[in-house]
Fold this sequence. Notes:
- InterPro entries: Aldolase_TIM (IPR013785), TAL/FSA (IPR001585).
- This is Transaldolase.
- By secondary structure, the chain is α/β, with parallel strands linked by helices.
- The protein has one domain (9-286): Aldolase class I (TIM Barrel), CATH 3.20.20.
- It has helices spanning 17-27, 37-41, 44-51, 58-75, 93-104, 118-129, 142-151, 166-170, 176-187, 204-213, 222-230, 267-286, and strands at residues 9-13, 32-34, 80-84, 110-115, 134-139, 160-164, 194-198, 217-220.
- It has an 8-stranded parallel beta barrel, surrounded by 8 helices.
- Helix 1 runs parallel beside helix 11 (222-230), helix 5 crosses helix 6 and helix 7 runs parallel beside helix 9 (176-187).
- The protein is globular.
- The termini are far apart.
Amino acid sequence: MRPQQLSTNIFLDSGNPADTEAIFAALGFLDGQTTNPSLVAKNPEVRSRIESGKPFTADDLKAFYKTIVVDIAKTIPDGSISIEVYADEHSTVEELFEQGKEMFSWIPNAHIKYPITSPGLAAAERSVAEGMRVNMTLCFSQEQAAAVYAATRGAKRGSVFVSPFIGRLDDRGEKGMSLVRNIQQMYAAGDGHVEVLAASVRSLEHLYELFSLRTDIATAPLSVLETWQKEGMALTAQYAERVELKEIPFTETSLKKEWQSYDIHHELTGTGLKKFAEDWNRLLQTTT
Length: 288
């Protein structure tokens, strides 16, 4: 069952409904789940279909994605489930919004994942204005998080998530956890309508640090959550800090500007967007 003193919501990062059932049974609770094109590509049924030579059309793949989230929702009907639009460097605001609008209708507990790009932010602004919930993904800077806040200004708490990616910053020698801390510090001056959903959680150490920061939400893969359960679902533990990682300094950033005025460019956002698109398109290319 959920530890009594746990203030962070626990999400599973997976595109496999079987993982949802397994971790829900192991933990006794689950607050939500995040999915993305790369995770869908790893789904056992997708892999099996490719190996058997059965082709996917774009419509087939989208329909399969829908069955995945519908099945996940059967296990956690009251939990948030993030569904990611297909996006690449050529995607327009209208294309992203129309995808998001359709996906939002799939289940009653959806958050639509848009990338933190200019079209993604514009689509999110429109989505929130129409009563949709969003999860702004591939966040690697404070300025990006500030832009998310500005683009969704006026939304109710629970309607907007921002997803800073810890592990991918760690991979290049920067302390991803410091970005989470910086965003939380910056948001403390705001109205609280954006919740921080820490992503790219690679280890128990990441999870424990997020607990100590009282981060709103942590999404982690099945392996990390299973290890946490086996360790007794503790909220603190002794671990060696990675002193080789460079701290990302906090910068004073106003939340009162229009979203278009923030510098939202980050190399890792572009890299992540390309990876998600390639994983999705590879499924189609493999079977055509």
